[in-house]
Amino acid sequence: MGIRHRFIPLAAALALTGGLAAAEAAPALAAHPASGQSAAGGTYLYFNKNQSNPSNSRLYLMKSIPNAKDKVLAKYRAGSGNGGRNARNECASMQGWLPNGSYRVLAHTERHNGGARGINGYAIHVQDKVCKNGRTKRTELFVHSEMNVNGTQGARQPGRDNPYRWDGVRDYYSLGCIKLTPAHIKNLFSRAAHYGWPKRLKVVS
Q: Is the pLDDT of residue 98 over 70?
């Protein structure tokens, strides 16, 4: 969509600690890893969309275990979709949540600069996806939060929503991307650097 991206290599290291969940049983739907992961025993992202409340979905960092159930390395509340009547319509560009399926993780950066009202700071870019109607391509898809380019929070703007500041649960709404709180996406970057950066995202509902 004409936005210039500046990414760091997928192998970049970041040493932090913390997170919602580190080692627990894999969610039932994640028993089978994303395509191409199990043979190498690598990591992948797994987004489980919540039909009753898309803004209260879950994003998992998973490790595939050959010949066994995959392991949850971390999990986070996440949202996808704008909260409106088309929030569950994967073919509604800039409104609905991500289409189900497997995505390549293209790159990640801690300093994405999306321009005016664009995505800033920590961001994971995933491939475009054609939705289930076979025609509509969803583009500019990211896992991201609301922050400044340098990862800090924007100023509070009474009576207005600052797109560069996390103000509350309504900020889980998105134009189709996957959104996390600033603390959670930073933790995800930390854990991905520790366990190995995922090359795939799997989306289910």
A: yes
